[in-house]
Amino acid sequence: MCGIIGYVGKRSATPILIDGLRKLEYRGYDSSGIGVIANTSGNIVVRKTKGKIKDLVNLIDKQKLPQGQTGLSHTRWATHGAPNRANAHPHFDDSKKILIAHNGIIENYESLKENLKRQGHKFVSDTDTEVIAQLIGHFYKGDLFDAVKRAIRQLRGAFALGVICKDHPGTLIAARIGSPLIIGIGKDENYIASDVPAILNLTRKVIYLKDGEMAVLKDDKVDVFTFLGKKVAAKVRTVTFNVDAVKKGGFPHFMIKEIHEQPDVIEGMLKLRLKGSKVVLKEIGLKASELKGINHIFVVACGTAYHAGLAGKYFIEKLTRIPVSIDAASEFRYRDPVVGKKTLIIAVSQSGETADTLAAIREAKRKGAKVVSICNAVGSSLTRESDGVLYTHAGPEIGVASTKAYIAQIAMLFLLGLRLYDFKKALPKKEVSRIIREFKKIPGRHKEILAGKDKIAKVAKKNSHFGCFLFLGRNINYPSAMEGALKLKEISYIPAEGYPAGEMKHGPIALIDEYRAVVCVSPQSDIYEKMISNMQEIRARKGKIIAIATQGDAVIKKHANHVIYVPPTHNLLTPLLVALPLQLIAYYIAVQLGCDVDQPRNLAKSVTVE
Ligand code: AGP
């Protein structure tokens, strides 16, 4: 997710573009840039830098931008190419006539780039965005609208674009498919922006550009067209909500917004990584022969990422029979682990800056192991020190309590398991085909669960008075129970423990009485009856049970005080579904208790120290 602002009008563009960019920093903040068409020279002058928008402002203070009334600016959440100055937007074509800012992922950028290189175009960045700029420049013969039209017809993937050209001061072109872009209607000036907060202080009149639409903005008019150039009557709407609410997409907190982004995150991952029933993990950094030779996998991670890794262990072992060990990175780094040349280290980290995880992979590499990281932050330290990187592309996760990054980590581990299955087939092909079919239904199943969030909120509020929670799960949902406990404790501060349900009688059962709540993660599976036995033992001791079960399961109602249903799926995929009720239970209890859900006390989004 990135932030784009464009301006065309009679005022100086720079202050408007910078002010708008600041309001979009939540969409991405690893590098930023700005470009304006200079009134004097007529050239496009660009300033860009790695880091936050304050770094861009400092740069502009030192290296002033010329006056100009047409411009673009961009704050980046890197997807292709490390977050550095060269990869920061906006990007030129090699004639320096065309400048663009982009939000999205172009899936066919490599083939387009090779083609453009063969035609003599020189590239200066690793981004997919520069390919778009070069493509427009390639087609540009004086008619900017036509060049943009021809270029975008060759793009596959998602893009929201802003385009200016030095030959056309006073003109700004916009286009979108798959990524949001709005047009702001001002007085003698008009704007484009990735989201409403950026321009709410300038206007409340907006056009929400639709997928497959492009627009030509001048200071006194805006025309909207289809990608084929057919003019459309665009509806101008009036925005009523406040800036802060809009940054959160109308949600009260980033956490609940990010919980709702999970269907799209999985949708995007499957679109990028699952071609039919073939898993494509090109950046894994290991040759097929190396993948085939793996005889031991070691997952290292911390916190929520550790729980994702634990679910990945169950999945990968089931599909491949490759032994998967897992350590909290803080343990791995100091216990002189047994690691060999055929050990694959999988480091899981949202931020890619977690000190213990970084130390763990350095220890593993010292012992000769290969490292593949599953990470959300492009160009982070972890990714630079790994042999291969599988980016989750979940977009910036602002809420300190991880939700969409967790789901993306599990999904990526499952995709890795399916890729390794190509070498070590330990399940019948038809079962794996069923897993893939069910995997593709997960985004829709997520939406079904989210549609029932009010019921989950009711259950959560009814149980928010308990002073202690126990979360129980078995097999591949033991990690789900651990994550449910972590989510609750880190945002509501209620003591909560996650346990394998089979361990209950070995101690935790002493906790059970009418003052404790027990969350039992018990979707249909071959160990479902065992969960029912646990629930009978809990009820016998007056424990209050919230069960998470599979739709249609009427039996479980007899054993629980509350039942939250998830749609059916393959047992191995259930962690991807049960995570949502667990996240929502934690969220609604914390809200009920008046906790600071997005920035809980004592926590940091990335633990960059030991
Ligand atoms: C997640 O809810 C927690 N805030 C925390 O456990 C986090 O998962 C852990 O610190 C690891 O962070 P990372 O994924 O960035 O490495």
Give structural notes.
This protein folds into three domains: 3-240, Aminohydrolase, N-terminal nucleophile (Ntn) domain (Glutamine Phosphoribosylpyrophosphate, subunit 1, domain 1, 4-Layer Sandwich), CATH 3.60.20; 247-440, Glucose-6-phosphate isomerase like protein, domain 1 (Rossmann fold, 3-Layer(aba) Sandwich); 445-597, Glucose-6-phosphate isomerase like protein, domain 1 (Rossmann fold, 3-Layer(aba) Sandwich). Strands 3-2-4-1-10-9-11-15 form an eight-stranded antiparallel sheet, with helices on one face. The protein has a seven-stranded antiparallel sheet with strand order 5-6-7-8-12-13-14. Strands 19-18-20-21-22 form a five-stranded parallel sheet, with helices on both faces. The longest helix is centred in the C-terminal third of the chain and has 23 residues, at 429-451. It is globular, with a radius of gyration of 26 Å. It is an alpha/beta fold and 610 residues long. 2-deoxy-2-amino glucitol-6-phosphate is lined by residues 302-305, 349-351, 354, 357, 400-402, 490, 603, 606-607.
